[in-house]
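Structure tokens please, single chain.
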Amino acid sequence: MSYDRITSDNAALLMVDHQTGLANGVQTMSPPEFVNNVKALATLGKLYNLPAIVTTSAADGPNGPVMPVVTSLLTDATLIHRPGEVNAFDNPNFAAAVKKLDRKKLLIAGISTEVCVTFAVLSALKQGYEVYAVVDASGTWDTRVEQAAIARMVQAGAIPITWCAVGAELMGDWRSPVGQAHGALMAEHLPFAGNLFASFAAAKVA
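Here you go.
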């Protein structure tokens, strides 16, 4: 497969079942780390003006509402509440909303990795989309479950990626107009990056 970069003109962001109740079951990383990664991905979506769809599964039940870090950032996203469909693409409103975006590349993250993310990824691939599974903004209860899910998605043709790599590819060049804002995002969500930038700034002053 040739390298066709992710850009703000060809990609869309799908946030699948990032719900407060479901987030309690994520054990593949610590709760603060998971929230940090989800917030970073949502911030990238906002910074680069990616069209976004946020979907929930039975939000009026124990799965809970959308995580606040998602709703507070992706204020222009299309919100699709699914009453029962496990695979988001089985919901006609969701499938139609994705088609309406008219984007070739789909960045998909969610809870849980092996069910809601994987099923959406497989369906998107079947419909001809180029799909990137943002694995560190997705989660489940066991690393073995996560590894099996990633292997299944890769075998089907999906591309695993992290929020940091998504951001770097979207930016492309630190001299871009969003370079400073992107640096601030990195400093907030990656402690080593924050230390790096702070050390550089201190050295310049000295």
